[in-house]
Amino acid sequence: MRCLIPLAASAAAVSVRIATPCPANTVPWGDGSCEPFSTAKRDALKWLRKNAPPSDLRNVATLFGTPGGVDGLDAGVAAVAANATLTAKMRWPWAWGVPRDIFRDYVLPYASANEPRTHWHGLLAKAVEPILEALPRHASIADVAEAINGYGGNSSVWQNVGGVKFHSGQTPLIYDPVSTVAFGYASCTGVSTTYIAALRVAGIPARLVGTPAWLGDPTKGNHNWVELWDGVSWRFWEGRPAGGGETLTNPCDKWFCKAARFPVNGSTKVYAARFDRHSNQTVYPLAWDPSNLDTPGIDRTNAYVGMCSNC
Ligand SMILES: *[C@@H]1O[C@H](CO)[C@@H](O)[C@H](O)[C@H]1NC(C)=O
Ligand SMILES: *[C@@H]1O[C@H](CO)[C@@H](O)[C@H](O)[C@H]1NC(C)=O
Ligand SMILES: *[C@@H]1O[C@H](CO)[C@@H](O)[C@H](O)[C@H]1NC(C)=O
Ligand SMILES: *[C@@H]1O[C@H](CO)[C@@H](O)[C@H](O)[C@H]1NC(C)=O
C-alpha cells in the first residue's frame, strides 16, 4: 500500500490518545517492562562499547565522550546516539514495542558499517521530526518508513535535507549520511546509510543489506539496500533516490529482485550488517574493503533466493 491512510482518517486519528505504556522518563521495552532512562542509557553505552569495532575503540573518548568533560567534551556520536534513540523510543508510539535485542543491534548503533562516524542524529532530527509529528500516533512502523522515504505525504527526508540524487559509483568517497546530505548525491550505499539513519532517528530498526558480487562474480558489480523491521519481520526496499516506485510489500517490484540475479543455487550471497559482534555468525563483506572483516553480519542468502527467484 503506497498511501498511509486516507486524509480523513488521518485527521480524525490526531485526536485519538494512545496511552503511554510506561511512566515518564522510563523506556518501554517490547516485553512490557519499563526501565528508568538513566539505567537504560548506561546499559546502551556499555553495550555499544562492548560491541564497537576495534578501529572505533582506538577513538573511544572521541566517540563516547569524556564523562564530566566541559565545552562539549562529554559528548560524542556514540553518546548522542544512545541518548537520542532512547528518547525516540519513549516518544514515538511505533517504537514502544521494539524489543531490547533488536533495539540494540539496529536502532542504537551510530553506524551501519565502516563509514565515517559523524553526527547524523543532530543533522537528520530536523529533517525527520516534522514528518513524524504530522503522522497519526497510531501509525505503524511501515507507515512511518514510507512517509520518511516520501511515499505517503508531501515531504520526505530527502526533500527536507535539500534534495539527494542518485549518482552511481560514489562509495567509498561519499557513503555516510552527513557526506550524502552535504554533496546532495550518493550511490546505493550512501543512500542506504542515510535512509537507515533517518529510520533510527524515528526509533525504527533498520540495517544495511547487500551483495558484494552478483552471481559471486565481482566483475558483475555489487549492491546495497535497506531492511527494516516492521514489528514482525524484516522487509526490504531502497532509499527512494536509489529506487523509485518500490513498495515494502512486493519483493518483485525492486529492479534487482529477479530470478536472473538470485538463481536457486545461491551464487548471489546476501548479507545484512549488524553491530553485535559476539554472536559470531558471520561477517558483512565490504565490497570497497574486502580484507576488512570488522563488520558483523547475518547471512540472508536463503531469504532472498526465496523472495526473488520467482520474480
Ligand atoms: C538527551 O535527551 C534528553 C531528552 O530525553 C535531552 O533533553 C538532552 O538534552 C539530551 N542530552 C544530550 C547530551 O544529548
Ligand atoms: C499535501 O498537499 C496537499 C496540497 O497542498 C494538501 O491538501 C494535503 O493536505 C497535503 N497532505 C499531507 C498528508 O500533508
Ligand atoms: C548458478 O546458477 C546460475 C543461473 O543458472 C548460473 O549462471 C551460475 O553459473 C550458477 N553458479 C554456480 C556456482 O553454480
Ligand atoms: C568469536 O569468534 C572468535 C574467533 O573464533 C573468537 O576468538 C571469539 O572469542 C568469539 N567470541 C565470542 C564472544 O564467542
Q: How would you describe the overall organization of this protein?
A:
Mean pLDDT is 93; it is low at 1-16. This protein has one domain (4-308). The radius of gyration is 19 Å and the shape is globular. It is an alpha+beta fold. A hairpin with a 5-residue loop joins strand 1 (26-28) and strand 2. The chain starts with 6 loop residues before the first helix and ends with a helix. The chain has a six-stranded antiparallel β-sheet with strand order 7-6-5-8-10-9, with helices on one face. A two-stranded antiparallel sheet has the order 1-2. Strands 3-4 form a two-stranded parallel ribbon. Helix 2 (37-51) crosses helix 5 (77-91). The protein has helices spanning 7-13, 37-51, 54-57, 60-64, 77-91, 100-106, 120-133, 141-149, 157-160, 177-183, 188-201, 301-308, and strands spanning 26-28, 34-36, 165-166, 185-186, 206-211, 223-229, 234-237, 271-273, 282-283, 296-299. The structure holds 2-acetamido-2-deoxy-beta-D-glucopyranose (4 copies). Residues 166-234 form the Transglutaminase-like domain. InterPro entries: Papain-like_cys_pep_sf, Transglutaminase-like. This is Transglutaminase-like domain-containing protein. It comes from Pelagomonas calceolata.
Overall tally of domains: 1
Total DSSP E strands? 10
SSE class: alpha+beta
Terminal CA distance reads 19 Å
Note the run of SSEs as H and E. HEEHHHHHHHHEHEHEEEEEEH
> Roughly how much helix do the residues carry, as a percent range?
25-40%
- Pick out the low-confidence regions: 1-16
Bound molecules: 2-acetamido-2-deoxy-beta-D-glucopyranose
Strand order of the largest sheet: 7-6-5-8-10-9
- Tell me the strand percentage band: 5-15%
H/I helix tally: 12
Radius of gyration over C-alpha positions, nearest whole angstrom:
19 Å
| Average pLDDT number | 93
- Quick one: overall form? globular
Domain Transglutaminase-like: 166-234
Pfam families: Transglut_core
Keywords: Signal
Protein name: Transglutaminase-like domain-containing protein
